[in-house]
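Protocol step 4 of 6: structure prediction from sequence.
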Amino acid sequence: MPGKRILMLVGEYSEEYEIFVFEQAMMAVGHRVDIVCPDTEKGYRLRSSIHDFGPVMTWTCASA
């Protein structure tokens, strides 16, 4: 079966794992994933979050 194109809608400060684990899993089985955050312009770097269980509980980063 040929790979499908998947459009994934995400929001600002979404959890990193919710976005990139899904994207990588779909790409691993031959699908193409486009990630879009509504109300942003082309080239915008989405800010996402990573939760940790250390002294700092939440990290924020701009995704490439």
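Step 5 (inspection) to follow. The longest strand covers residues 5-9.
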